[in-house]
Amino acid sequence: MKTISLTRKNLYDLVWSKPITVVAKEYGVNYSDVRKTCIDNNIPLPENGYWSKIKFGKPVKKFALPVDSEKGDDFEIIITKKVKKNAGLIDKINEIETASKQSIANAQRLKNPDILVVNARENLKGKKPWRDSGLVNTDSNFLKIMVSSSNIQRALRIMDSYIKLINSRGHKVLPKDGKLITDVYGEAITFYIQEKTKYQYITEEWGYKSRTRIPTGKLTFRYYATFEHNQRIIEDGLERLENKIPVIVAGIESLAQK
Q1: Nearest to residue 193, comparing CAs of 223, 226, 228, 227?
Q2: Which of 2, 130, 190, 215 is in Cβ range 3.0-4.6 Å of 81 for a Cys bridge?
Q3: Count of CB atoms within 10 A of residue 27's CB?
């Protein structure tokens, strides 16, 4: 393992200059490790929504670095850089990214879609969102897609790009037990796209409050080998899901090999 050494003041300046997710990616460390290091060393962090406000020119509040009466601000802070654990996966991602530039480009538009994507598109036509979630779902035996109506086309593009990249890697999407799975090295990997939802509270007549789930617009790609509660989730973030397809395929191949 390698380590990254920073002073307390250096780390404070760093996390207030860019989001922690960006800092973690640039230094090759975990988001949670950077955040925990800041908390352990009494380094204040930007509040939720800080970077969105910066983006749209809204006023923000920056918290000053508290004085550390015992150590000062120049003592060394070490964050462990976990390289060995993920080195194989990172190499695989780089390999797939290099060979899949066209596949990533195809995720931005639906061109000559795979027949499974065509079938899913037809299955979703005219469907109304579920009342308790605001999402529309494909039926059994189709690609599993659970998204709001406004995200159907985007989900289809992502699925099409995923299938084409999977096929180029020598794997296949096949039917099994009433659903479609990805056959990778002889292992059945269940996969699907689902839009994240959040609770919204509604005041009914007579002041009674109820809650319902509404779509957030953020898509997730989920997959698992055996049990759904052990699923792995790749989601929209600083990078949209369209740009994470090599990461998804690398993760699925690694899971199948395990």
Answers
A1: 223
A2: 2
A3: 16
